[in-house]
Amino acid sequence: MKIFFLLATIYSSTLFAKPTCEEAKIKIIFDKKPIITSEILCLRKTAENMVFYISETCAQGECEVLNREKKILEIKDYTSTVGSPGFKLCTELGGVPQIFEYSTKKDKGKWQSTERCLFGAKDFVEISLLVREWKSFINLK
Amino acid sequence: MSLLRETTKVFMYILAATILTLSQVYADACSDAFLNLESDIKPLMNKRMTSYDDMYFFSISIDHYRERVKNKPCPPVVLSKIATYRNEIKEKRLATITKFIKLGIKEEAGRDLNLEADYLTGKNPRAQYEFAGAFRPEPIVENRPDTKPPVETIVINPPRVEPVIVTPPRVEPPAQVSDPTCGEVLHQNETVNLQNARNQDSVGWCYAYTAADMLSFKLNRKVSAISLIDPPDIEADVAIGAKPIGGIIEGSARKYLTKNRGVCLEENLPSSDFKFCIDQRYQDYINYLLDLARTNRFDQALSTNSCLERDLRSLFPNVSIPQIQSHIRQKGSKKLIEMLNELQCSRLTSVNPQTLEMETHNSFVLSKTDLMKHLDREISRGVVGIGYDYKTVSVGSTEGGHASLVVGRRVNPANGSCEYLVRNSWGKACEQKEDSEVTCHKNCDSTGCRYSGHFWVSRSRLTSAIADVNYFKR
Questions:
Q1: What is the CA radius of gyration of chain A?
Q2: pLDDT value of position B125
Q3: What is the pLDDT of residue B17?
Q4: Which of B224, B230, B352, B356 is buried most, with the most CB atoms less than 10 Å from its CB?
C-alpha cells in the first residue's frame, strides 16, 4: 500500500503549476492606524523580463482593459507636470487610480508601494503596465 | 512461504497497474498537451487585434506544448490544427500591425513594427524574428515507430536566414573612459531609496515632494510632502482645470522650518498613505470637500454620505468634525485645507533648522554649465533637488517646469557618457520617452524586473534642461 501511495504522489506531482499568483498583505492607514488585509496579486511577465501585478481576474484573461483594442488616445494635459501621467491614463481608460502598500512572501515583512488602476470591484492592473502598453498610443500634441 | 507469495502477488499487481497507467499517460500526452494549448491560446484567437504581448503568450504556449509532448510524435490531425493556429495568429498580427502603421504608430513595446511586418510577410528573408520558434513546425510522424518520420514542410520564410536582429541591436560597451567629473555615486537610505519613489497623485506639488524627499533623506524620517506645499491659496491651486502656481524646492522647506522649527512626518499628515472609502483621486476629494464648504452643504453631507467622515478620519485624523464645522461657519471654504493641514501637523518632530539649511542656484543668475558644476560637486556629498524643463528631458512632452531629486551618477556602461539618476514623484511607471539619453531605471531580482520610478538622464540632456539646483549647506 505504501508503494501505491508513493506512486500516486509521484504521478500527481507531474501536473503543471498554475500561473504565478500569491496572497499578499495590503496595508492602508485609517485613523493613523495601519489596517492589514490580504489580497491575491498575480504576476504578469513580459518578454523583456519585466513583471507587473494584476488581479486574479486579469490573470485569467477575464478583464476587459487588457483585452481592449488599442486606439489613439487624446488625453488633455497628459504630459503636463501637474499630477502623475499614469493617473491620467488610468482615468482616461475608465479606471480609478489607487496607491497602495503591499508585502509578499519574498518581501519578508518589508512594505512596497505601487499604484494600480481599479476597474470595478475585481479587476486591477498596475499603472506601470498600463503606461507600458499605451504609451505609444497617446497623442502628445 | 505463503506470506511471501501473497506479498509478491500484491507487488506484481501494483507494478502492472503502474505500467498500464504510464502507457496510457504516454498515449494521451499529445491530446492533453494539445487541449492545454488550445485552452491557452483561445483568448488570443478570439481577439480582434493581436498585440506584441499576445505574440509573446502564443510563443510561450507553443513552448509549453512542446515541453509536454517532449518531442514525441503527435498525430497529423493535431499538427495540422496547430499549423492552422499559427497561420491565423500570423494573419491577425499582420492586420494589427497594418492598422497601427496607418495610424502613424511605428513601434509597440519598443519593437519596430515595420521590421516585424517584413518578417511575417517574408519580405525580409534576412530578418530573424524573436518569436520565430513559435512558427517552427513540428515533425509529422505516422504510426510506425520503426521508420523515420518525414518532416512537415510548413514554411513561413525561406529556410536560410542571415541573423539580423529585429529588436534594437545590442551596443557593445566601449572601453571604459575615465571621466574624473563622473565618479559613480548612489545615495539611498531606509527612507529614500530605489524601492519607494513617491507619487504626487493628481496635484502639481512636485517641488514639495522633492523638498520632502530631501529632508527625509537627511533626517532618515519620512517627512510629509503635503506639509510643505506653499501656494498662496490651495483652493485656487487644486481647482479642476486650473494651472497650479508651482513652488520652489528650497523656499518651501525654508518657510516651513522657519515658521515651525520642526517637521511634520508623513505618518501625521499623509500625502498618499491612505485609502478613500470610494477610490478616487486626491484632487477630486479635496475639491469635493471645498465645494461642500463653499455651498454650505457640509453638515447635510455628513448625514447623507457615510464616506465623508470616514475619509476625513483617514486624511485628517487629528482634526475633529466640530473643528471643521466651526471653520466653515466662520470662513466657508477659505483656507480650509490650510487649516486642516496645520491642525493635522500640530505635533511636529523638532529639528535644528540650521542643519537643514539649503543653498539654491538658478538659471536667472548662473549659466546652465555652472549649475551643472554645482550639481556635480554636490552629488558627491548627497542628494540634490533640481528644477528642470521636463519637455527637454523627455522629448515629446508638452509642458515644462518640474522638480525632482538627483540621487546618483555614473558612466553609462553602454555608451560611456556621464548620466544622472533622477528620482521622480510620479510613482513607479516608466513615463519617460526612452531614447539614447534617457532610460528608465529598473529593480531586478529572481522573479524579474520592475520599474522603480527613477530614470537615467545624460549629462548633455540634463544640461539643456536644468533650471535650478538645491542642496544642503552642510
A1: 19
A2: 62
A3: 64
A4: B224
Interface membership of B267 toward A (CB under 8 Å): yes
**What chain B residue is nearest to A126 in terms of C-alpha separation?**
B429
Q: How far is CA B305 from the centre of its chain?
A: 35
- Answer yes or no: is pLDDT of B153 > 50: no
Nearest to B399 among A79, A112, A132 (CB): A79
The residue-averaged pLDDT of A81-103 equals: 88
Contact residues, chain A, for B310 at CB < 8 Å: 30
Pick the residue with more confidence: A129 or B74?
Answer: A129
Crossing angle of helices B113-121 and B76-102, in 10° steps, is: 140
The DSSP string of B415-432 is T--EEEEEE-SB-SS--S
Whether B421 shows a pLDDT value over 50: the answer reads yes
Inter-chain touch B204–A3, beta carbons under 8 Å: no
Q: How far apart are the CA of A40 and the nearest CA of chain B, in angstroms?
A: 17
CB–CB contact B447 A43 (8 Å)? yes
pLDDT attached to residue B404:
97
* φ/ψ bin of A32: left (φ > 0), alpha (ψ from -120 to 50), beta (otherwise): left
Residues A48-56, mean pLDDT to the nearest whole number: 92
Q: Which residues pair with B127 in a beta bridge?
A: B164
Whether chain B has a CB inside 8 Å of the CB on A81: the answer is: yes
Q: Do A84 and B426 touch (CB under 8 A)?
A: yes
More confident site: B326 or B133:
B326
Helix (H) or strand (E) holding B349: strand B349-350
Calculate the alpha carbon distances from B447 to A18, A28, A101, B70 in Å: 16, 25, 19, 26
What integer is the mean pLDDT of B234-259?
A: 85
- State how far the Cα of B244 lies from the Cα of B283, in Å rounded to an integer: 12
At position B360, the amino acid (one-letter code) is T
List, for residues B77-112, the tens digit of each pLDDT value: 888 888 888 888 988 898 888 888 877 777 776 677
What is the spatial distance between Cα B423 and Cα B192, in angstroms, rounded to a whole number? 9
For residue B429, give the nearest of A77, A101, A128 by CB distance: A128
- Whether B114 has its CB under 8 Å from any CB of chain A: the answer is no
CB proximity A95 to B under 8 Å: no
Nearest to B317 among A32, A84, A114 (CB): A32
Which of A102-106, B168-172, B202-206, B268-272 is the least confident region?
B168-172
Identify the helix (H) or strand (E) that includes residue B257.
Answer: helix B249-260
